[in-house]
């Protein structure tokens, strides 16, 4: 987990999303310890928890914004960054790690100019670490939009990225 | 309440059911060390320094939160307990920036003291050490998380005492860091600068931004005429830095010590408090008689002002337009006094000594420059003045008692009352009632005195019934603000002090340990000392201050005159909520 990464991606929330969130919060705010379910509902709706969303939660629950932020950064289930159009996850579970997934991660970070846990400002790429995804035989592995790539060496990274670059037509 | 019987270290002890082991032990003269615990606001049992052994319990228990029970056998000092405490502190030290020799808190650091008492080895555990950037973004505070031990006492002061909650624990585990939402600096959030976080910090992680060096430079510059002014509550706090009992009034030695620093004049901000009473009193009368915005709220406490600007901008018209005594003092020095003594305002340096960190922010606000230059140049907290005196080799305790310089050192008992919660109200009532009724009125308005909760009182002025309220701490202020916002406030005049108990307990006053906060009475001691200072004053009503009278006669004309507005009043601005 480690460092907290606030997003640089512009907020694209819609009035419909806000309406839905505020309605949900009317229920969750009545619950004891209602902040967790409130944040879960918010992440369900927006996919992540940017400042704009956390302010709504703080306002509805009459909490300080810092209290909301503190909880959102304590639990690994909450993300401050949206998933990118191309969402890359590198397994840092034990098997993958001893097989060199740390180097894979470093290579992707360098290639994309992103750090683990962040999303590029244009929203195209996101990079996250994941724990074991259950295919240790293929270690080290990464997934891109759910597709699994295994038995990797750092030099495989540019090839994989190129595939999505062409598909996405940007970077 | 039922009583339970237990033993602590073999000693019989009777305690109320529900009482903590910590308090029960204390009641029979046994001190258990604590670190994170602050009574009522931070009872989280997190740091594990206060652990004790309870016979039959599986593990050591945190005595600050563990309740006593019938027949309990407690041991506070067994080898197992001491070993555990020692390891806890050694682990804290392993990730602590141990620059004790150059730390502002060396000598009054609770971590240092515990380490010494427990015989810790500060190099026992060697592992990863966190490195954090300093937050020096505000004019009043420096946060150095390299010295933070995550006790959360600052978080509790901000959230529970002040109701602001601008800081908290972000992240988790080893990466946890105290900071603000979305990792913003303190200058970018709705921090009000009260400094209560500094006051409760056990280490050097939080400190005021010092202006001591700048003041020394000004004192040594022959071109500058350096004027000091001291706030009412500094005189009842400063002595604690030099071994005097809590709340000792050291006014005479304080004046003598500042004179020995090399100040050209030592004046009293109490005088400006008298001036504030005149301006604010007349402003209130004017609002009362001409259907102005009510309730009128006092404007002496700069953290309170900033609180309103961030959180209740719609209530800005309720704030008195009077500058605070600090700013009235500086403004008067640089206009009236500079003119009278034939000096250019830019050659006069005003140093104010305050129990407050927010005053450092206040002096940089807009519309605080009556003579075209800032009203106040430097603000020293009580702690900074003490540090400066030590640095300059001034033996405080051995100094004679000396008096303030004339003319701006002359003040009344009403002025000194500004240092305690209810004091501004009482000072104003002494003058307002007398001015309206046209005959001598009582001196003491005990209804508004005290430190607890929200106090209210009823008065009749010129046939009108008026209800006033007094509150200290911003969590209490919030309650009164909500009432006004919702249209159900019953008050005409409200006094707010940001810090609990008023300026005597300000964020710039001498540091008190958690033990003194949990078991001591320093706020009461300082308060009583202020009240005694008032009692022994010859003049106890602001309008009787001869210098104030002369100021109006020869300079301002009358309270709230155009000239007075130009020099002694200010404006406020809306600030973002987040």
Write a compact overview of the structure shown.
The complex is a heterodimer of chains A (171) and B (578). Helices cover 45% and strands 12% of the residues of chain A. Chain A is of the alpha+beta class.
Kindly describe this structure:
The complex is a heterodimer of chains A (171) and B (578). Chain A has helices at residues 15-28, 35-46, 51-61, 65-74, 94-98, 101-112, 156-168; strands at 86-91, 118-119, 125-130, 142-144, 147-149. With 171 residues, chain A is of the alpha+beta class. Chain A has two domains: 15-74; 86-168, Glutaredoxin (3-Layer(aba) Sandwich). In chain A, strands 2-3-1-4-5 form a five-stranded mixed β-sheet, covered by helices on one side. In chain A, helix 1 runs parallel beside helix 3 (51-61). Chain B is of the alpha/beta class and 578 residues long. In chain B, strands 2-1-5-3-4 form a five-stranded mixed β-sheet, with helices on both faces. A four-stranded parallel β-sheet of chain B has the order 11-10-13-14, with helices on both faces. In chain B, a hairpin with a 2-residue loop joins strand 15 (454-461) and strand 16. In chain B, helix 8 packs across helix 14. Chain B is globular, with a radius of gyration of 25 Å. Chain B starts with a strand and ends in a 10-residue tail after the last helix. The mean pLDDT of chain B is 96. Chains A and B meet through helix 3 and helix 4 of A and strand 7 of B.
Protein traits:
heterodimer, A: 171 residues, alpha+beta, Glutaredoxin, five-stranded mixed sheet, 5 strands, 12% strand, elongated, B: 578 residues, alpha/beta, Ubiquitin-like (UB roll), Rossmann fold, 2 domains, four-stranded parallel sheet, 19 helices
Query: Please, what is the average pLDDT of chain A?
Result: 93
Describe the main β-sheet of chain A briefly.
Answer: 5 strands, mixed
Could you tell me the radius of gyration of chain B in angstroms?
25 Å
Helix content of chain A: 40-55%
The level-1 CATH class of the largest domain in chain B: Alpha Beta
The CATH architecture of the largest domain in chain B can be named as 3-Layer(aba) Sandwich
Strand content of chain A: 5-15%
CATH class of the largest domain in chain A: Alpha Beta
Percent helix range of chain B? 25-40%
Overall, the morphology of chain A is elongated
Name the beta content range of chain B. 5-15%
Series of secondary-structure elements of chain A, N-terminal to C-terminal:
HHHHEHHEEEEH
**Domain count of chain A:** 2
SS summary, helix count of chain A: 7
Instruction: Work out the radius of gyration of chain A.
Output: 18 Å
Q: Care to count the β-strands of chain B?
A: 17
């Amino acid at each position: 987990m480690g460092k907290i990464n606030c997003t640089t991606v512009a907020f694209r929330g819609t009035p419909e999303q806000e309406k839905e969130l505020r309605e949900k919060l009317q229920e969750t705010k009545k619950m004891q310890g209602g902040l967790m379910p409130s944040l879960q509902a918010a992440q369900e709706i927006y996919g992540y928890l940017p400042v704009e969303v956390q302010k709504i939660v703080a306002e509805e629950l009459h909490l300080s914004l810092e209290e909301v932020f503190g909880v959102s950064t304590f639990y690994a289930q909450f993300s401050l960054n949206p998933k990118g159009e191309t969402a890359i996850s590198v397994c840092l579970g034990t098997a993958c790690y001893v097989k060199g997934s740390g180097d894979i991660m470093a290579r992707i970070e360098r290639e994309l100019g992103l750090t683990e846990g962040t999303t590029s400002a244009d929203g195209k790429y996101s990079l996250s670490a994941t724990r074991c995804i259950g295919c240790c035989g293929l270690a080290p592995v990464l997934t891109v939009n759910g597709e699994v790539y295994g038995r990797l060496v750092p030099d495989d990274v540019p090839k994989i990225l190129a595939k999505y670059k062409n598909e996405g037509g940007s970077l | 309440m039922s009583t339970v019987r237990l033993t602590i270290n073999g000693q019989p002890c009777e305690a109320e059911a529900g009482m903590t082991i910590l308090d029960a032990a204390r009641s029979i003269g046994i001190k258990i060390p604590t670190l994170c615990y602050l009574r009522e606001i931070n009872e989280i049992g997190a740091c594990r320094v206060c652990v004790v052994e309870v016979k039959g319990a599986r593990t050591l228990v945190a005595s600050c939160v563990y309740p006593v029970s019938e027949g309990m056998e407690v041991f506070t000092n067994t080898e197992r307990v001491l070993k555990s405490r020692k390891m806890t502190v050694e682990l804290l030290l392993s990730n602590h920036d141990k620059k004790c020799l150059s730390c502002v808190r060396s000598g009054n650091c609770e971590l240092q003291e515990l380490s010494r008492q427990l015989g810790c080895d500060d190099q026992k555990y060697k592992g990863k050490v966190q490195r954090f950037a300093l937050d020096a973004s505000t004019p009043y505070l420096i946060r150095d998380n390299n010295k933070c031990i995550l006790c959360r006492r600052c978080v509790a002061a901000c959230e529970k005492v002040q109701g602001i909650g601008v800081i908290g624990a972000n992240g988790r585990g080893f990466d946890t860091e105290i900071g603000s939402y979305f990792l913003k600096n303190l200058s970018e959030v709705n921090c009000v600068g009260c400094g209560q976080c500094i006051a409760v910090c056990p280490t050097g992680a939080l400190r005021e931004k010092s202006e001591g060096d700048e003041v020394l430079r000004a004192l040594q510059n022959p071109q500058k005429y350096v004027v000091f002014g001291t706030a009412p509550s500094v005189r009842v706090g400063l002595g604690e830095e030099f071994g005097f009992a809590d709340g000792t009034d050291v006014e005479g030695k304080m004046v003598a010590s500042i004179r020995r620093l090399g100040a050209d004049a030592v004046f009293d901000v109490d005088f400006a408090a008298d001036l504030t009473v005149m301006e604010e009193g007349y402003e209130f009368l004017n609002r009362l008689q001409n259907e102005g915005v009510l309730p009128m709220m006092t404007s002496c406490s700069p953290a309170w002002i900033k609180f309103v600007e961030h959180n209740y901008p719609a209530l800005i018209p309720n704030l008195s337009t009077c500058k605070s005594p600090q700013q009235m003092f500086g403004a008067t020095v640089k206009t009236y006094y500079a003119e009278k003594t034939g000096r250019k305002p830019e050659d006069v340096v005003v140093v104010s000594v305050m129990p407050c960190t927010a005053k450092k922010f206040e002096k940089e606000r807009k519309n605080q420059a009556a003579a075209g230059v800032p009203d106040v140049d430097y603000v020293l907290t009580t702690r900074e003045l003490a540090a400066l005196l030590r640095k300059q080799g001034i033996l405080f305790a051995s100094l004679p008692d000396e008096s303030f310089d004339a003319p701006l050192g002359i003040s009344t008992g009403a002025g000194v009352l500004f240092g305690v919660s209810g004091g501004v109200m009482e000072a104003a009532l002494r003058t307002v009632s007398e001015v309206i009724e046209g005959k001598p009125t009582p001196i003491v308005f005990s209804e508004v005195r005290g430190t607890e909760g929200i106090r209210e009182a009823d008065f009749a002025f010129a046939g009108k019934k008026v209800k006033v309220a007094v509150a200290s701490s911003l969590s209490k202020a919030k309650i009164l603000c909500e009432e006004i916002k919702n249209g159900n406030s019953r008050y005409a005049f409200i006094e707010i002090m940001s810090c609990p108990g008023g300026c005597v307990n300000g964020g710039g006053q001498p540091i008190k340990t958690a033990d003194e906060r949990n078991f001591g009475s320093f706020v009461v001691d300082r308060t009583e000392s202020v009240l005694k200072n008032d009692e022994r004053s010859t003049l106890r009503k602001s309008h009787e201050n001869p210098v104030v009278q002369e100021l109006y006669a020869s300079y301002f004309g009358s309270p709230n005159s155009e000239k007075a507005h130009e020099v002694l009043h200010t404006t406020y601005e809306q600030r973002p909520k987040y």
